[in-house]
Give the backbone structure.
Amino acid sequence: MEKVVVSIGGSVLIPEKDDAKYIKILADALKDLSDKVQLMVVCGGGIIARYYTNTGKELGGTTYQLDEMGIAVTRINAKLLSIALGEAGIDEIPVDPKRCADNSAPGKISVMGGTEPGHTTDAVAAMIAKYCGAARIVNASNVDAVYTDDPRKNPDAKRLSRMTIKELKEIVYDEHGAGKSSVFDPLGVKIAMENKIDILMVNGRDLDELKNAILGKDIKGTFVDSH
Ligand code: UTP
């Protein structure tokens, strides 16, 4: 059975309206797929992580301390999803990518958050994928694809249906230094590149799109070819 790692952005997991209802719908969609592919899911921190990092920053917290708070939130978010998965979930929220991969099984979805300061949960997804030899990483964010430029600022920005991982690397390394929100974590791109793991960038709110990505079918988002 193919193994697939999903990196879910915190803002996708927690829409801030009818959260329990939405998380249940998302969990049910994942559950339906868990006997077709072996699933591991990494949850981001979203608005709650931002609250802590912004408030901690105002209080003079170090980057390391802010990251630690971010990680704590990603783990609580992972717990929410694992609760919503019910029988298909696993009570333990691993703190180690290897453990996350080892805990998962057909019909059993292993969910985790961050690991250590210095990167985001996208990198954790890539670490899990590397360890278990995953067929692909699905990046479920609130953006529907990768564009040639910021579509909110540049009306000529083009949506990319396919790109190489080398092209993605160029984008994320430019962006990261500026502290902007990256399309995908640079360390995650590096790991995916070295291990030839494709990344599918999709809008996680579109559940049909998310399912297609997980199953390796055609998507409306961007297919990042690592081969
Ligand atoms: P996210 O993975 O949600 O980061 O982790 P993000 O990409 O900045 O957030 P979105 O996707 O735009 O909403 C939240 C924060 O937790 C810390 C980082 O500070 C990160 O920004 N973190 C997370 C770590 O330091 N290490 C990890 O392994 C994971």
About this structure: The first helix runs from residue 10 to 13.
